[in-house]
Sequence to fold (93 residues):
Amino acid sequence: MKRFALIVVAMAFTSSAVAAGIDSRAYTCVGLHGLITANRFVFINYPSFMDFVVTNASYCSGGEVLQLRSVPTSDDPECPVNYCRSRGGGGSN
Fold:
């Protein structure tokens, strides 16, 4: 719940493009990491992902852990990004 509240508040202050989600394929892997770092978290609007990526574990709630996942970018089909997942569940790629 803490993560959700932080995300909602932060979305109100971020650009509408980032808040609405971005297509990771429009960025290079380095560019995507720069965007995530600048905004602290970004919603990836990609059909097989559709979730937030974060800069670090401080954006995960108490019941979540940081996990690496990959998303496609313009220069890398498997660009690694940080993602919060439930301690008991696994994410799929």
Observations:
- The helical segments are 2-13, 16-20, 29-39.
- The mean pLDDT is 83.
- Residues 22 and 69 are 16 Å apart (CA to CA).
